[in-house]
C-alpha cells in the first residue's frame, strides 16, 4: 500500500495549506478504506464464484462488454502511469544518492540515471510471474516503511527552518487554484492500492465456513494502520519543517546527515524496483494475451523478450522526456487513480447491491462518487499545468 507517492505529500500540503490539507488527507484515508472494504466484500458475493480480477467484477456489474471497456483501459492507464512515475523516481533517487555520497564528483545528467534504473528492468522483466518476485516485494515493503520513517525523522532532527513560510507559493489567484488542483492529484496517487487488491485476495484460500474476506479484511486494517503511520507524519512534519519551500520529493530537501539521506534514497530505489515489476507484470500479461489470441502470434520466448523490452524502453523514454515527479504524480493521480480507487467500487456497489434510495449506504456511495469525479476532473488540469511550467525552463534530454 505504501508507495513512493508518500514522498510528494509534504509538497501537496504546501499547495493545500494546513486546514484543507489535513482534511483532504483524512478524508482520502477514510474514503479509500471504505472503497477497499467494498472490493473485499464483492470478491465473493456470488456463491461458489470468486472475482479474481478487477475487470471480472466490472463485467458482472456492467455487463460482459461494457464492463471490459470501463475497467480495462483505466487499469492499463494506472499500471503504465505507475511504471513511468517510478522510472523518474528511481532515476532521481539514484542521482540524489550519487550527489550525496560523492559531492565533489562530476555532475551526471538525470537522463543517465533513469537509463541505469531502466537497465535493471530489462533483466527483471523476464522473470516468469508474481511468485518469482516475492523476495523483491518483501524487500520493497520493508524499504517503503524505512524511507518514510527516515523522511519524517530526519525532518524532525533538522528542525523548523529559520525562514519557514506557510503561505501559498503561487503569487496569482489562478496559480494558487491550479496548484491546489495538482496537490489533490498528489494525494490521490499516494492512496492507490486498489488496482491489484482482487488479485491479492485471489491468492487466499476460501471455504463457505471461512471465506477469504475475513483474513483479507484483517490484512487491509493492518495495511491502513501502517499507511496512517507513514503518510501523516511525513506529510505534516515535512510541511511543518520546510513550509512552502519543500521539494516535490521530500528526500531531495533533506541534506544531512549525508549517510542517512543516501541510505533513504537507496531504499526508494529498491522499493520502486519491486513496485515497477508488480505493476508491469499485468501489462505484460495483457499485451501478450492480445498478441497471441487476437493477432495470432506464436507464444514464443522471442515474442516475450521483444514485448517486455519494448515496454520497459517506452516507459524509460517517457520518463526521460518528462522527468517532473510532482507534475506526473498530480496528472496521473487524478486522471488514472481517482476512478479505480475513489469511485468505481462505489458505482459497482450501487449497480450490484442496489441499496435503499436515500439510505446511509446510498448517500455514502454518492458522496464518494462525486468527490472522486471532482478529483478526476480537476487534478489533471493542475498536473498538466505544472508539467508545462516545468517544461518551459527544462532543456529536453539535456
Automatic annotation (TrEMBL):
Family, as annotated: Belongs to the amino acid/polyamine transporter 2 family. Amino acid/auxin permease (AAAP) (TC 2.A.18.2) subfamily.
UniProt GO MF annotations: amino acid transmembrane transporter activity
Coiled-coil residue windows: none
Keyword Acyltransferase found: no
InterPro entries per UniProt: AA_transpt_TM
Organism: Acer negundo (Box elder)
Predominant location: membrane
GO cellular component, one term: plasma membrane
Protein name, per record: Amino acid transporter transmembrane domain-containing protein
Subcellular localization: Cell membrane
Start and end residues of each Amino acid transporter transmembrane domain: 1-382
Spans through the membrane: 16-37, 66-89, 110-127, 133-154, 220-242, 262-284, 305-325, 331-353, 365-388
Keyword terms: Amino-acid transport, Cell membrane, Membrane, Transmembrane, Transmembrane helix, Transport
Membrane-protein topology: Multi-pass membrane protein
Entry keyword Cell inner membrane: no
Domain of life: Eukaryota
Amino acid at each position: 500500500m505504501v508507495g513512493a507517492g508518500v514522498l510528494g505529500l509534504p509538497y501537496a500540503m504546501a499547495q493545500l495549506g494546513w486546514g484543507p490539507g489535513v482534511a483532504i488527507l483524512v478524508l482520502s484515508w477514510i474514503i479509500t478504506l471504505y472503497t477497499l472494504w467494498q472490493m473485499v466484500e464483492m470478491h465473493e458475493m456470488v456463491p461458489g464464484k470468486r472475482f479474481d480480477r478487477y475487470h471480472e467484477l466490472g463485467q458482472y456489474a456492467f455487463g460482459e462488454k461494457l464492463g471490459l471497456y470501463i475497467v480495462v483501459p483505466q487499469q492499463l492507464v494506472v499500471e503504465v502511469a505507475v511504471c513511468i512515475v517510478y522510472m523518474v523516481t528511481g532515476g532521481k533517487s539514484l542521482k540524489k544518492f550519487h550527489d550525496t555520497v560523492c559531492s565533489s564528483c562530476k555532475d551526471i545528467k538525470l537522463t543517465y540515471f533513469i537509463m541505469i534504473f531502466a537497465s535493471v528492468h530489462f533483466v527483471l522483466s523476464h522473470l516468469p510471474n508474481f511468485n518469482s518476485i516475492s523476495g523483491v516485494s518483501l524487500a520493497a515493503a520493508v524499504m517503503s516503511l524505512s524511507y518514510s520513517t527516515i523522511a519524517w525523522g530526519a525532518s524532525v532532527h533538522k528542525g523548523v527552518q529559520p525562514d519557514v513560510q506557510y503561505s501559498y507559493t503561487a503569487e496569482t489567484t489562478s496559480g494558487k487554484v491550479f496548484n491546489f488542483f495538482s496537490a489533490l492529484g498528489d494525494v490521490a496517487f499516494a492512496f492507490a492500492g486498489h488496482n491489484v487488491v482482487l488479485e491479492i485476495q485471489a491468492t487466499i484460500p476460501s471455504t463457505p465456513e471461512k471465506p477469504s474476506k475475513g483474513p483479507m479484511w484483517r490484512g487491509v486494517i493492518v495495511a491502513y494502520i501502517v499507511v496512517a503511520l507513514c503518510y501523516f507524519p511525513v506529510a505534516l512534519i515535512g510541511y511543518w519543517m520546510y513550509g512552502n519551500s519543500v521539494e516535490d520529493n521530500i528526500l531531495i530537501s533533506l541534506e544531512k546527515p549525508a549517510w542517512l539521506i543516501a541510505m533513504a534514497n537507496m531504499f526508494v530505489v529498491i522499493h520502486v524496483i519491486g513496485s515497477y515489476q508488480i505493476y508491469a507484470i499485468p501489462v505484460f500479461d495483457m499485451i501478450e494475451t492480445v498478441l497471441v489470441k487476437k493477432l495470432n502470434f506464436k507464444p514464443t520466448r522471442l515474442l516475450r523478450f521483444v514485448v517486455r523490452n519494448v515496454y520497459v524502453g517506452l516507459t524509460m523514454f517517457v520518463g526521460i522526456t518528462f522527468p517532473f515527479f510532482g507534475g506526473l504524480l498530480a496528472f496521473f493521480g487524478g486522471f488514472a487513480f481517482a476512478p479505480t480507487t475513489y469511485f468505481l467500487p462505489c458505482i459497482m456497489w450501487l449497480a450490484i447491491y442496489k441499496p435503499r434510495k436515500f439510505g446511509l449506504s446510498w448517500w455514502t456511495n454518492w458522496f464518494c462518487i462525486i468527490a472522486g469525479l471532482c478529483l478526476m476532473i480537476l487534478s489533471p488540469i493542475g498536473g498538466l499545468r505544472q508539467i508545462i511550467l516545468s517544461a518551459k525552463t527544462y532543456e529536453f534530454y539535456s
